[in-house]
Design goal:
The chain is α+β, with helices and mostly antiparallel strands. It has one domain (1-127): Rossmann fold, CATH 3.40.50. It has helices at residues 2-20, 47-63, 66-72, 85-88, 100-105, 114-127; strands at residues 29-36, 74-81. The chain has a two-stranded parallel ribbon with strand order 1-2. Helix 1 packs parallel to helix 2 (47-63). The longest helix is centred in the first third of the chain and has 19 residues, at 2-20. The two termini are 24 Å apart.
């Protein structure tokens, strides 16, 4: 979970930044890190997932600091998506077994379609500023 959600995102940012950095070969731009509302508040059921998403938010906030943005012209934002139908339809496994009853109840929770989520991501990109 941490390798995919956090380390993979950090490696991707490190790889693309030189191509975007105005002081190197780039023209600036925007990096969009897709994360989750579970990264905003602790999740006692999905502990590792929550920790990885907290990490994405912390990394994004750090990389969007004016210290970098004023130099490289690359805006960085995090999109904190809520639950989607695709997510809740998967087999959700709680970090500890006694949280599984809560994970199973998520199947009936209100959620958005992936199409609506994607439309909102595009809107956030169009309206966004650094940070």
């Amino acid at each position: 979970t941490v390798n995919t959600n956090l380390t993979g995102m950090m490696n991707t940012c490190a790889t693309v930044l030189p191509y975007m950095d105005r002081q190197q070969m780039g023209k600036g731009g925007i990096i969009v890190n897709v994360t989750s509302v579970i990264g905003l508040d602790p999740s006692p059921v999905f502990c590792a997932y929550s920790a990885s998403k907290f990490g994405v938010i912390g990394f994004t906030r750090s990389l969007s600091d004016p210290l970098y943005y004023n130099q490289n012209g690359v805006a960085v934002i995090a999109i904190c998506c809520g639950p989607t139908k695709l997510f809740v339809d998967q087999k959700l496994t709680a970090f500890l077994s006694y949280g599984q009853c809560f994970a199973d109840r998520l199947r009936t929770a209100p959620c958005q379609s992936t199409a609506i989520c994607a439309k909102n991501i595009v809107k956030a990109i169009e309206c966004s500023r650094n940070g």
